[in-house]
Structures are given as C-alpha cells and as structure tokens.
Amino acid sequence: MEKTTEISIVPRAAFPGKVSDLITKLHEQEQLPVNYVAAAMLATISTAIGNSRILRKGQMEVHPILYVGLLGDSGSAKSPAMKFITRPLANHDDKTLDTYRRELEDYKKNPVGRDKPIPSQLIVKDSTLEGLIKVMSFNPNGILLQMDELNAWISSFNKYRKGGGDCEAWLSFHDGDSYTVNRKTIDEVVHVKHPFVSIIGGIQTKVLVKAFSGDNMDNGLLFRMIFAPNSSEGKPILWQDGNPDADLQKQWEEIVNRVLEKRTFDMFGSKEYTLDADAWFYIKDWQNTKETELAEGGDPVDASIFRKTQMTCFKFCLILHTLREAVGEISPSKIIDTQTAVKAVLLTEYFFETARYVVELIDGNGVDMSRFQRWYDILNETFTTEQAQALGTSLGIPRTTVFRFLKNGLIEKLGYGKYKKLI
Questions:
Q1: pTM to 2 decimals?
Q2: Which residues share a beta bridge with 418?
C-alpha cells in the first residue's frame, strides 16, 4: 500500500528551551538525528522519574512508563543517539554497581548476622521476562530496558517459558499493574507491586514489519509503543568543521541528575501530581475534538491508534513537567499547568502521526498482496465489516490491514459496516 503519512521532525517546541537547544546542538555538532535524540530523552527522563511520581485524575493513575522504538536503517545513528542520551543513567550504574561489588565481597568474607547486599541499577540488557522480574524486585524505583535491537526483546517472548504469557505481561507493565511470578522449580513467589520498566531500542524497517505483523499488531503491543522514525533517512551525514561542544554531555547529565536526586519511592508510595483545571480542560477539549474528527472521518484504524496513543499524553505531562522543573523553567509543584498540557498534546499528536506511519509501513510491506487478491476473490459481492474481518483472520491478515483493505478503490462503502465489491 502507498504510504501517505510523511516523516516529520519532532516538535522541539514541546521541550523546555534549554533542552530544545541541546537537541539542536547535538544534531548540528554530533550529527545525531533530532527524532532519535528527543525520543531517547523522553525514555531517559521517564526512567529517572520511575515510581517516584504518578499523575492522578480521579480514579485514573498514570505512570510515566514509555516503550520507545528508534526506527531506521542500519547506520542511521540509532545506537549513538541512544547511548549518548542514556549515558547519565549508565554512569549512575557504574557507581552503584561498584559499591555493590565491594559490599558483596565484604559480605562473602563475613556473612554472619548480615543481610546480603542487593544490586541497585537503572539500565538492564536482559530482555527475558524472568530476568526482568528479578531485577525489578530489587529496584522498586524502576529500570530501563535498553537494547541496540528491539527485535531481541520481541524474540524473547515465551522463549524460556511454557504456556506463554510474556506479551500479556508487557501489556500489563505498560500501565504499571502489579505482577506475580510463581517459580515452581525453586518453590518461590516473586511479587512486584509497582513494576516500572521503560524500554528503548532501535529497529530497522524490514525487521519492524516482520516483528509487528500478525499477533503483535492485533494484540495492542504495537500501539503501546512510540516510534521515532529518522527524518534524515537517505540524506548524507556530513562531518562538520569545528570542535563539538564538550559541555553537551555535562549539560544533559546535570539535568538527568537533578531528576534522579528526587527519585524516592518508599512505603509512603509515589508522589501524586494533578492537572490544574485549565490544563484538564485543554486536554479534554483536544481529545473530544480529535475523537469526533476521526469518528466522522470513518477510518477505524486511525481511531484505534488514537485511542491507544491518547493516554500517552498524560505520561508526557508528567515527564515534561519534571523536565521543566529540572531546568528551572518552573518552580517545583505538584500541579501541572496548561503550558505543560499544550506541550504534551503537541508531542502526542506527533507520535500519533508516527504510529500511523508505522501501520502504513506494515500494511504496505508485511502482507503479501496475493493474500489481498485471495481475500477479495472469496468475499461475497456485498459484505459486512465482521465478514471481512473473519475472512481476514482465516487468511492470517491483521485486523488493521483488513480495515486498510476496505478503503481500497475496488470496494465501495454502502453504509455503516456495509460494503460492495466493484469488480
């Protein structure tokens, strides 16, 4: 299928001025793609906040957990951007794990009457569910699963477990829901009351199509991720004259460390943040308007994408509010203002568009068009949405792709949920 959604540059105006300037300098001086840098910053600050803060609106409780994918071909600087931006977290781990190793050696020499040291860390590379559960139980503040290739994470689903359930766990983790593992082999129960694991990794387009076609598209995992495509794809990466600003890493590390300094999560739980009345009105008005536009537009795929991505707006509110505090743009407060809400909506709109772009990529490359022809040939002359979806399922075609098929020029819409073949 032809792609209609263009790759745009992430709106830097959504970030505090100092952070926006940093994104620009990293692009100009280090040739790091803007979209990769900005998305990696969101994942890093998400992790730095961890379980220390939640946003509450009535019964709704939002944790700033993000699943971030940097989308681009090999050599597009996904890993350099990711490593530069997450380095403050890695530096933090270097210190805490050095301390842990010393304490462990001392414990081994004299264990009597002492508790065994527990490793504290922010970044993990083990993508297997059992490994993550163990690390989260040791680190209630939260962690970041960082991988050069996201496909390693997806491929790990159910790799070592009988009966499956990995994907369902990750869908649950995205909302911060409690999770329990019964390890029968050693008669142990591991319970994580407030699991917090954000994710960041790179993924190539052809790998994305393969990884998220089929079940991983229909089960909602795709729409719980935010993707940052490379807006510079296909353009030359040219070395520049002059020396890069040596302070760029220092500036970013200072920002992240300010967030980490307030990263406390104890028996009293997370600090609760709320939207002020005007901020809530702005977000509510935006959601209502967008939902109405999509409903009237008649594209159920776009509507489905929006219903998943709209909740990310609240996550962005908490992350951007924390960033604004960290750079001194606003005073510390548990009330999130309208300006932050406006910026959060701006980011949400951007990632809604990138989600549409990703779905179009998968639709255009992930389904053999011979299956479309077979699907089309088997359909009755007139049919309903339910009949089209049932046939698609029998042929292994994702539901979202069937919806795209229904917009094909060979099909006429007769009314709500009713269609007719034209040839």
A1: 0.84
A2: 384, 415
